Amino acid sequence: QVQLVESGGGLVQAGGSLRLSCAASGRTFSSYAMGWFRQAPGKEREFVAAIKWSGGTTYYADSVKGRFTISGDNAKNTVTLQMNSLKPEDTAVYYCAASRVPRYSPNYYSGATYDAWGQGTQVTVSS
Protein backbone atom coordinates (compact mmCIF):
# COMPACT_ATOMS: atom_id res chain seq x y z
CA GLN A 1 0.00 0.00 0.00
CA VAL A 2 1.39 3.38 -1.01
CA GLN A 3 1.48 6.21 1.47
CA LEU A 4 2.58 9.80 1.04
CA VAL A 5 3.16 11.66 4.28
CA GLU A 6 3.70 15.41 4.39
CA SER A 7 5.38 17.32 7.20
CA GLY A 8 6.65 20.81 7.90
CA GLY A 9 3.52 22.90 7.76
CA GLY A 10 2.72 25.53 10.35
CA LEU A 11 2.10 29.17 11.09
CA VAL A 12 4.50 31.82 9.84
CA GLN A 13 4.46 35.58 9.40
CA ALA A 14 4.40 37.14 5.97
CA GLY A 15 7.89 37.25 4.53
CA GLY A 16 8.94 34.16 6.42
CA SER A 17 9.90 30.70 5.22
CA LEU A 18 8.74 27.15 5.64
CA ARG A 19 10.03 23.86 4.34
CA LEU A 20 7.61 21.08 3.48
CA SER A 21 8.71 17.49 3.11
CA CYS A 22 6.98 14.47 1.69
CA ALA A 23 8.04 10.87 2.10
CA ALA A 24 6.51 8.07 0.09
CA SER A 25 6.43 4.53 1.33
CA GLY A 26 5.29 1.21 -0.03
CA ARG A 27 7.08 -1.94 -1.03
CA THR A 28 6.85 -1.26 -4.74
CA PHE A 29 6.65 2.52 -4.76
CA SER A 30 8.23 4.29 -7.69
CA SER A 31 7.23 7.38 -9.58
CA TYR A 32 7.94 9.41 -12.69
CA ALA A 33 7.34 12.70 -10.95
CA MET A 34 6.22 14.18 -7.66
CA GLY A 35 4.57 17.45 -6.98
CA TRP A 36 2.81 19.78 -4.61
CA PHE A 37 -0.69 21.16 -4.83
CA ARG A 38 -2.60 23.38 -2.44
CA GLN A 39 -6.17 24.18 -1.59
CA ALA A 40 -7.32 27.28 0.23
CA PRO A 41 -10.72 27.45 1.94
CA GLY A 42 -13.48 27.94 -0.59
CA LYS A 43 -11.13 27.53 -3.53
CA GLU A 44 -10.25 24.74 -5.89
CA ARG A 45 -7.06 22.76 -5.57
CA GLU A 46 -4.25 24.35 -7.53
CA PHE A 47 -0.86 23.29 -8.78
CA VAL A 48 2.19 24.62 -6.94
CA ALA A 49 5.31 22.80 -8.15
CA ALA A 50 6.51 19.50 -9.55
CA ILE A 51 9.70 17.69 -10.35
CA LYS A 52 10.17 15.09 -13.08
CA TRP A 53 12.78 12.59 -12.05
CA SER A 54 14.08 11.96 -15.53
CA GLY A 55 16.27 14.95 -16.22
CA GLY A 56 15.27 16.72 -13.02
CA THR A 57 12.97 19.17 -14.78
CA THR A 58 11.00 21.36 -12.40
CA TYR A 59 7.68 23.11 -12.92
CA TYR A 60 6.20 26.01 -10.98
CA ALA A 61 2.99 27.93 -10.83
CA ASP A 62 3.49 31.57 -11.79
CA SER A 63 2.30 32.63 -8.35
CA VAL A 64 5.22 30.91 -6.60
CA LYS A 65 7.98 31.21 -9.19
CA GLY A 66 11.07 32.78 -7.66
CA ARG A 67 9.86 32.16 -4.11
CA PHE A 68 9.40 28.38 -3.89
CA THR A 69 11.89 25.67 -4.77
CA ILE A 70 11.10 22.00 -5.25
CA SER A 71 13.73 19.34 -4.86
CA GLY A 72 13.81 15.67 -4.14
CA ASP A 73 15.51 12.33 -4.12
CA ASN A 74 13.98 9.72 -6.40
CA ALA A 75 15.94 6.88 -4.80
CA LYS A 76 14.59 7.82 -1.38
CA ASN A 77 11.11 8.68 -2.64
CA THR A 78 11.18 12.09 -0.99
CA VAL A 79 10.33 15.55 -2.21
CA THR A 80 10.78 18.91 -0.51
CA LEU A 81 9.24 22.30 -1.07
CA GLN A 82 11.22 25.25 0.22
CA MET A 83 8.91 28.23 0.54
CA ASN A 84 10.41 31.68 0.98
CA SER A 85 8.91 35.17 1.05
CA LEU A 86 5.59 33.71 2.06
CA LYS A 87 2.45 35.77 1.56
CA PRO A 88 -0.96 35.52 3.25
CA GLU A 89 -2.36 34.26 -0.06
CA ASP A 90 -0.10 31.20 0.25
CA THR A 91 -2.28 30.03 3.14
CA ALA A 92 -3.70 26.64 2.24
CA VAL A 93 -3.53 22.93 2.86
CA TYR A 94 -0.58 21.65 0.86
CA TYR A 95 -0.72 18.19 -0.67
CA CYS A 96 2.07 16.01 -1.93
CA ALA A 97 1.34 13.94 -5.02
CA ALA A 98 3.08 11.29 -7.07
CA SER A 99 2.71 10.30 -10.69
CA ARG A 100 3.34 6.57 -10.91
CA VAL A 101 1.74 5.61 -14.19
CA PRO A 102 3.59 6.17 -17.47
CA ARG A 103 1.76 8.69 -19.61
CA TYR A 104 2.21 10.06 -23.06
CA SER A 105 3.03 13.79 -22.78
CA PRO A 106 1.99 14.13 -19.14
CA ASN A 107 0.81 17.52 -17.98
CA TYR A 108 2.54 17.94 -14.64
CA TYR A 109 0.49 21.06 -13.92
CA SER A 110 -2.68 18.98 -13.77
CA GLY A 111 -3.86 17.00 -10.78
CA ALA A 112 -5.14 14.33 -13.15
CA THR A 113 -1.54 13.30 -13.85
CA TYR A 114 -1.03 12.21 -10.26
CA ASP A 115 -2.40 9.00 -8.83
CA ALA A 116 -1.19 9.03 -5.24
CA TRP A 117 -1.86 11.80 -2.74
CA GLY A 118 -0.94 12.64 0.79
CA GLN A 119 -3.32 13.80 3.50
CA GLY A 120 -2.08 17.36 3.42
CA THR A 121 -0.36 19.76 5.78
CA GLN A 122 -1.66 23.17 6.78
CA VAL A 123 0.33 26.27 5.97
CA THR A 124 -0.90 29.52 7.46
CA VAL A 125 0.75 32.85 6.68
CA SER A 126 -0.27 35.76 8.87
CA SER A 127 -0.11 39.36 7.71
* Gyration radius, rounded: 14 Å
Mean pLDDT: 95
Assign the structural class, choosing from mainly alpha, mainly beta, alpha/beta, alpha+beta, or little secondary structure: mainly beta
Q: List the total number of helices.
A: 0
Largest sheet: 7 strands, mixed
Helix-strand pattern, N to C? EEEEEEEEEEE
End-to-end gap? 40 Å
* Binned strand content: over 45%
Gross morphology is: globular
Spans of 5+ residues with little confidence (pLDDT < 50)? none
* Helix content range: under 10%
**Strand count:** 11
Your description of this structure?
The protein has 127 residues and is mostly beta strands. The chain has strands at residues 3-7, 10-13, 18-25, 33-39, 46-52, 58-60, 68-73, 78-83, 92-99, 116-117, 121-126. Strands 2, 4, 5, 6, 9, 10 and 11 form a seven-stranded mixed beta sheet that branches. It has a four-stranded antiparallel beta sheet with strand order 1-3-8-7, with no helix packed on it. The protein is globular. The model has no long low-confidence stretch (mean pLDDT 95).
What layout of secondary structure does this protein have?
Layout: E1 3-7, E2 10-13, E3 18-25, E4 33-39, E5 46-52, E6 58-60, E7 68-73, E8 78-83, E9 92-99, E10 116-117, E11 121-126
Parallel strand pairs: 2-11
Antiparallel strand pairs: 1-3, 3-8, 4-5, 4-9, 5-6, 7-8, 9-10, 9-11
Overview in brief:
Helices cover 0% and strands 49% of the residues. It is built from no helices and eleven strands.
